[in-house]
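#dry-run=false #mode=assembly
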Amino acid sequence: MAKKILIIGAVALGTKAATRCKRVNPDTEITIIDQGQFISYGGCGMPFYISSEVDSINELRATSANVIRDPHFFTHVKDIDHVKIRTKALEINPQEQYVLTENLDTGEKEKLFYDELVLGMGSHAIVPQIKGVGLKNITTIAGLEDAEKIRTHCEKGIRHMVIIGASFTAIEIAVGLADMWNIPCTLIKRSKRMLPNLVSSTVSDMIRHDLEEAGINIVAEEDVLEFAGDDEGNVCEVVTNKQRIKADHVILAMGVKANYELAEKAGLKCDPKYGVCVNEYLQTSNSHIYAGGDLIAIKNLISGKEMHLPMGSLANRQGRIIGTNIAGGNPQTGLETFPGVVGTWCMKMHKGTVAGTGLNEDMAVKAGFDAVSINMEQLDRAHFYPEKHMMTLEVVVEKKTRRILGMQGYCADGTAVKARIDTMAAMLQFGKPTLHELSIAEVSYSPPLASAMDVFNTAGNVADNIVTGLGEFIKPAEFDALFEARDSNNYVFVDTRAGQAPLELCKKYPEYWLNIPLERFNEDMEKIPADKNIAFICNSGTRAYECLLKFKRGGRNAVNSSGGMQAMKKRGKKY
Amino acid sequence: MAKKILIIGAVALGTKAATRCKRVNPDTEITIIDQGQFISYGGCGMPFYISSEVDSINELRATSANVIRDPHFFTHVKDIDHVKIRTKALEINPQEQYVLTENLDTGEKEKLFYDELVLGMGSHAIVPQIKGVGLKNITTIAGLEDAEKIRTHCEKGIRHMVIIGASFTAIEIAVGLADMWNIPCTLIKRSKRMLPNLVSSTVSDMIRHDLEEAGINIVAEEDVLEFAGDDEGNVCEVVTNKQRIKADHVILAMGVKANYELAEKAGLKCDPKYGVCVNEYLQTSNSHIYAGGDLIAIKNLISGKEMHLPMGSLANRQGRIIGTNIAGGNPQTGLETFPGVVGTWCMKMHKGTVAGTGLNEDMAVKAGFDAVSINMEQLDRAHFYPEKHMMTLEVVVEKKTRRILGMQGYCADGTAVKARIDTMAAMLQFGKPTLHELSIAEVSYSPPLASAMDVFNTAGNVADNIVTGLGEFIKPAEFDALFEARDSNNYVFVDTRAGQAPLELCKKYPEYWLNIPLERFNEDMEKIPADKNIAFICNSGTRAYECLLKFKRGGRNAVNSSGGMQAMKKRGKKY
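#status=ok
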C-alpha cells in the first residue's frame, strides 16, 4: 500500500516537499492542506508587486513558464494526490497519526491519517495589541491579500504611508513606494540602528542614508502607542511616545513569529522564542513528523545557538530535503541532512544593496566571542576599468584566533556585493576561516569584474593589519565624535589625500585640518604639531594607513579613520 | 644591521613583496631590479587599453589616486631603498648569496648581495619559430610596449587583424577590436574547442557563438605554418595548413612560459613544464630564495598535480605572503603559507561572461577521476523580477563519491556568474563539497538578486538527480547529433514546451517533432509512438525532466536534452 504523506501548509516548503517526494518515490499518496486561498506563491516578491515592478499578482503565483500554481496544477501536473485549500488543521494527534481538519467554507471536519506528516505552517506577522490597530487601512504584509490591498490603495493615491518596523520587507516596501510611486513614507522603529542584529553602526548609517536619499523619513527610537482614526474608521494618525504622524495607510512590518502552537499542543518539542525544534534530518521530536521553513528554530553554525531565520530560500532548500526524506531517502545516499545556517541575506535598496553573512559584532559578542568588526572601502573592479563601484566590506573577527565570524557589505552594484558575501558564506559553512585564508582566498579575476587584489582579499589584509597591531583604526562615527569635540580634545585631523578637496577643508577648519598627501609625507611629516593628538583620514583608508606607518616609524602614534571619506560619504556625513 | 632583501622583477609580485615587507619590517634594506622600462603595471588591463576602454596607458601604471608607480614612487612614497630598472639579472649564486646584474644602458655589471632573494621574473610570450615571424606588425602581448604598438596601429587603421592563439588575452583583445574599433579579426587556434582545458564542449560552443556574434572569425584546428610579408617587410598574410589569411597586423597570443632558466642554472628545483618549484611558504629549494607569480609551478588542490596559472591576482596574493615572510613573518602568527590553487578564472566577452573553478570534465578524467559534467540553465534572479538573465552552470562531479570537482558558467551578467563561481571556488578550497552540499549551500536571497531556489542550488539538484539515475540526460551536442541522424536512428523528439514555438517546429519536422506540453503530458503521453526512441527537450530542461519521470512511471525510457532550447540558443544552434 502507498505510504500516506500529509503536509500542512502549501506556500513554499510544503509544495516543494510534496513535489520532490513524488518525483523520488511516485508510490506515495500525498495530501496537502492549506487554510489560505492562494498556495505556492513567491511571498518575497510582494514588495516588488506593491511597487509595480512586478505587474500582476499572478506573476508571483506562476511558474517560469507562466502556469499558475493552483491546486489543479499540483494535482494534474505535479501528480499530488489531494490538495485541499481553505482547510485548517485543528489538532495533530501523533499517537494515532492523524490531523483533525476543518473546511473553512463548509465547517466540515475530517481526520486525515498519515504515515509521515510535514509541518509547513510558516509564521504570522506580529501585530501590536494597541489602541486603534483594527482601523481600516492598517494592514500586515503576511500574504497576497495584504499585498493586493496595499497596491490597490497606492493606485488610488496615498499621501502619507507609515510603515511600522524596519524588517527587510518593510524597507523593500518603503523603497518601492518612494522610487516607483513617489509616495512619502515614514518608517518607525524602536531601535536606534538599522538592522541592529545584522550590521554594524557604520553599515547601519549607510542603510539609513540610502533610504533618506530616496526620501524616506526614518523615525528611530520611538514607540508606537496608538492609531487614531477618522469618522469613517480609517486610520489617519500614528501616535508615538514623541509625536503624531499623519497616515492614510499603515503597514505593520514588525517581523514574524513561527506558527508553532499546534505543534506544541501535540507535544512536539518547541523553542518558545523561535519555533519547532528539529534534528538534522528536519524531523521534530516525533520521527514521523517533519518540519521546516519559517516554522522552525534553526541552529546558527557559528554561534551554536538556535535562531529564527524566516526566508523563502531556506524553506525551498529544506522542503526538498524533507521531500527526499519522506520519500524514503535518496535512492543512493539515503536520508538527507540540513546542518544549520550561518545566516546569509541581501537586500536591494534605493542606491545600493546591503548583504551579510555570519554574525555582526554585537551578535558575536553576545555569543561570547572577543570580537572586533573592521570596515573598509575598495572598488569592486580594477580601478582603471571604466565601470566600477566603491564597495564597503566589514569583517567580524575573533581577535585571538583571527577566526572570521561574519562579513557584511554595501555597494551600488548589488550582485558585486552579493558575490563577496556568498563567497564568505561558503567559507563559513565549510570551515572556520581565518583572516589569512580570506587574504589568500582564490576568487576569479579579470579587470572588468574584479581587482587583482580583490576587495574581498583586501578586507582580509586590512583586518589582518589591524588585529596584528600594524595600524590603529577608528570607526567613522568615532572620527565624527573626535571632530565634534575638537575644541576640547587637542586633536588635529591630518588629511593625506592629494588634490583640491583637502585644501578646502584646511580653509574651512584652519586650526584643525591639515593636508599632507602621502606623496609628500616623508618630507612634510614634521609639520604635524608635536603637542597634538592625531587622527588620519584619506579617501578610502589606504593612504592614511601608509602615512600612519611612516608616522609610527618616526616614533609617534595616531589613529586612522577606517574607510576614509568614502565611508563618510556613504553615511551621508559631510565635512 | 638591516637584513638585505633583493627582488628580481617589479611587475606585480616583486613590488607587492617589497612594499609589504617594508610595512611589516621597516628595518630591511630592499633592492628591486627589473630589466624593463615600465614597472608595476596592470598587465591584465592591456586588452582594455588596446580597445580604448582604458584611455591612457598611464592608467595601467597609476595607483587609484592617479600617481604613476615609477621608481621614484617606490623609493619616495613606498620607502623601498633601491629600485633599478633596465637592469638584468645574469646569474644567481645561492652559495655566496649574490645576483650578478647588468645595466642594459651602460653595460655595467654588479654583484648584488642578499640575505633573502625573491624571484619574480614572470613569464614570456610563446613565439613560434616559423618563417616570417620577424616581419613588422607581428607583436606579442607581453608588456606595455606591445600594447602601445597595437593600439597605435588600431588608431592608424587596421583592415585585417589576425590573432594566433585563443588565450584569455587573445579573446579579450579580439572582443575589444570588434566591439570598440569595429576591426574584423580572425582568431586562429590549434584545438577544436575554445578553452579546452577549462570548459566543456557545451560552454565552448557558447564562447564560440558569443565571439562570432561580435563578428570575430574563428579558425579552429589549423596550424600556422608561416607569415608572408610585403615589399616593405610588413606582414600581409598568415599561411595555415589549410588557407592563406590576409593580415596587416598579427598578435601572437599563444600563451606564456615561466622565465625559470636563471633559477634552473642556479640549481633551484624546477618543473620543466611549469616553472620554479616552491613549498607552501613560497620558498624554492633554497630556503633563502622565494618565488611566486607567473614564474612558479603551482599545486592544483583538486588534482594534486602541478600546473601553471599565470594570473595577476595570484601574483598579488603571493607577493604579499612573500613580503610578510621575508620580513620575518607576521609579528603575531609567524610565516605565512600559500597551499595551492583550485584554478578560478573569469573572462568578459561580447554578450556574456564565462567563468570557472576547479576541473572541467576532461581535466578531471585526466587526473584519474570517474567524472561526469552536467550543464543546466536557470535565471539568475526571481523569474518574476523584471531584470534577469539566463545563466548556464556546469557541474563536474566524481560519480561514485558525488564529490564536486569543478564548476563553469556563462551568463550575460558577468558579476552574477562570478558570484556563483567564486562561491564554488570557496567550497573547493575549504572542503571536498558534495552535490548535496551544493544543493543546500546557503547563498543570499532576495528576488532582485537571486531565486528562492537559486541557480547555484539548482545546479546541485540537477546533477544530483542525474547521478542518482532519476533523469537520463544528453548534452546539447548529443541532441544535435541524434537529430542530424533522424532519418536512420528511429528517434522522435518530444518538445514539452507550451506556446507557439514548438508548434512551428512540428510543422517544420512533421515526422520527427512532437509537442506535448508538460501541462497536458498525463493525458497525451500515449500519443508518443511506442516503437520509437524518444528524446525530450523543453525551454531549460526542467519541464522535460518532469515529463521524463512521468514517462518512466509509464514504463518507458527516454533522454532529456540538458539545458533545453536555452542552451541551444546560447550555442547558436537553431532548430
